[in-house]
Design a protein that fits this description.
- The chain is α+β, with helices and mostly antiparallel strands.
- Among the domains are: 89 residues, Beta Barrel (conserved putative lor/sdh protein from methanococcus maripaludis s2 fold); 90 residues, Beta Barrel (Elongation Factor Tu (Ef-tu), domain 3); 74 residues, Helix Hairpins, CATH 1.10.287.
- 32% of the residues lie in helices and 37% in strands.
- The strands form five sheets. Strands 4-11-14-13-12-15 form a six-stranded antiparallel beta barrel. A four-stranded antiparallel sheet has the order 2-21-17-18, with no helix packed on it.
- Helix 2 packs antiparallel against helix 3.
- The chain starts with a helix and ends with a helix.
């Protein structure tokens, strides 16, 4: 009986060992299968990569300020009187010399007529005095009159000519007053403002209209004093304007103030802006940059560059795998948040952006496409259908 028990125990132990061996063999097969399974590439979206390209990059001090017309005139009354008629309204285009308003010219017209009559009379007197002088000179040459009589005749002629000059001057002033009663545009442009109406009584010097020339604008901008040394007259300016979306405008620095504002510590610069089409209008806010440096270069978004270490690095994708490489940076475009890459990358290289940079070195990656998205969305439906 003891012998049978020992036999049973031996059989049981053998079965247990056999079962364990089978289990271990099964686990080993699973581990080997897992180890031999190919690495699946990490899918990344197109928004998480950037392809290195060559483009224009610019750098320089940022500016902000206001646009104003290069030529602005405050048209004022030159004579006193009642405004009879106003011919224009704000926003209306005018040519040089276009009548803007008419001031009552009754008094000026009477003065002009009187002065003109005086000129006619004085001219006749001067002509008569010249005849008398010519006659006296002939008689004196013949010995018919004394030298003293000739000198008296010459004095009368000189007096007549002086009188004629005086009345001509008076006529010119009266004529100017009469012409000034018609208020005219000083140059071709646009009526930007009107502060007079028919029936108003105006005095010399009273402001009536504002006329601007929209073909040339001026950007009055401020630059931090610490950056003013980078700016020179003639440098290009690029800027955007409120209300014009992403549209860019350009101009040229024409003046740099010799002093800084004592309160803001900023220096004013003026830039001339061509505006032949009349697109821009005065009074709008503009911001941009003086392009102190500009060139074609290999350019990369700032979000692709890791600057936490001693040397800037990027995560480049080559042969489907991620590698970290060092790069050398050039100028920075602060407005577009781009950097010039002078060493480390070349045109056509692919680099990771943003959160995708967390993918480790050596990892396989693949840019997802529409088919990947379709397969992902279709998978749950297929699983449900199989059930």
């Amino acid at each position: 009986m003891n012998t049978s028990r020992r036999a049973s125990r031996s059989i049981g132990l053998g079965l247990l060992l056999a079962t364990g061996a089978l289990s271990l063999a099964g686990c080993g097969k699973k581990e080997n299968a897992a180890a031999q399974a190919p690495e699946q590439p990490t899918l990344i979206s197109a928004e998480n990569i950037a392809v290195v390209d060559t483009m224009r990059i610019a750098s320089g001090p940022s500016i902000s300020g206001e646009l104003n017309a290069e030529r602005t005139a405050s048209v004022r009354a030159e004579v006193s009187g009642s405004v009879i008629q106003v011919y224009v309204e704000p926003g209306q285009r005018v040519a040089a010399g276009t009548p803007l308003a008419q001031i009552d010219a009754t008094t000026a017209s009477a003065a002009e007529l009187s002065a003109r009559t005086g000129v006619t009379a004085s001219a006749a007197q001067a002509a008569q005095a010249k005849k008398e002088l010519d006659r006296a000179e002939r008689l004196n040459a013949a010995g018919a009159i004394a030298d003293r009589d000739l000198e008296n005749t010459r004095l009368q002629y000189s007096t007549a000519m002086a009188q004629l000059a005086n009345v001509k001057s008076a006529y010119a002033a009266a004529n100017k007053q009469l012409r000034s009663a018609t208020v005219r545009a000083p140059f071709a442009g646009v009526v930007a403002g009107k502060v007079v109406s028919a029936g108003d009584v105006v005095q010399p010097g009273a402001a009536l209209f504002t006329v601007v020339d929209p073909k040339s604008m001026r950007l009055e901008a401020a630059v931090p004093a610490g950056q003013i040394g980078q700016i020179r007259i003639g440098m290009p300016v690029a800027f955007s304007v409120s209300g014009y979306g992403d549209r860019k405008f350009t101009g040229t620095v024409t003046r740099v103030s010799p002093v800084a504002d004592p309160t803001t510590r900023q220096v004013q610069i003026l830039a001339s802006i061509p505006n032949g089409a009349g697109t821009l209008v005065g009074g709008l806010f503009a911001e941009g940059r003086v392009n102190t440096e500009s060139r074609n270069a290999v350019v990369l978004p700032a979000t692709a560059i890791d600057q936490r270490g001693a040397t800037p690095t990027v995560m480049r994708v080559r042969g489907g795998r991620v590698e970290r490489i060092s790069v050398t940076l050039g100028i920075r475009d602060e407005q577009r948040e781009n950097y010039e890459i002078t060493q480390g990358l070349q045109r056509g290289d692919t680099v990771l952006l943003g959160a995708a940079q967390a993918i480790g070195e050596g990892k396989q990656v693949r840019v997802s496409n529409v088919n990947d998205q379709d397969s992902k969305s279709a998978s749950p439906k297929a699983t449900t259908g199989s059930r």
